[in-house]
Amino acid sequence: MTLFAYNDVLQLVEAAVSRGGKVDFSSRNLSGANLILTNLTHADLTQANLTGAFLSGANLSFTNFKRANLSEANLVRANLSMASLRYAYLGGADLFRANLVMADLRNADLTEASLDEANLRAARYNYATKWPEDFDLGRSHAIYVD
Prior knowledge:
This protein has a two-stranded parallel ribbon. The protein has one domain: Pectate Lyase C-like. It starts with 5 loop residues before the first helix and ends with a strand. It is mostly loops. The protein is globular, with a radius of gyration of 14 Å.
């Protein structure tokens, strides 16, 4: 398992941004990575392994997490607005006060995730989205789509 130090990840992010490109961590193993407060807007994290990663306070708006593993990730107060979390696994993730406004949660697995005080206004979900057992979907203001 490859663990990236905070400075290593920051250097990769800064290098990509300075070249005018998007950050591409697709299919990378970032398990346990420290990405606290990192700006990963529009990043590609498709199929990335972010198990146990520290993403609290990170700006992850418009980021593609399709089929990513975010199990046990710390996403406290992370900005995930407009992010694509389709088919992502977030089992046991901590999304306390996370901003998921207009995020795409279709087919996402949020089993045992903590969604306390998370903002899900206009987030999209479908029949295959899996929610925590005690989650009150009716109060979330998320939108069901086919």
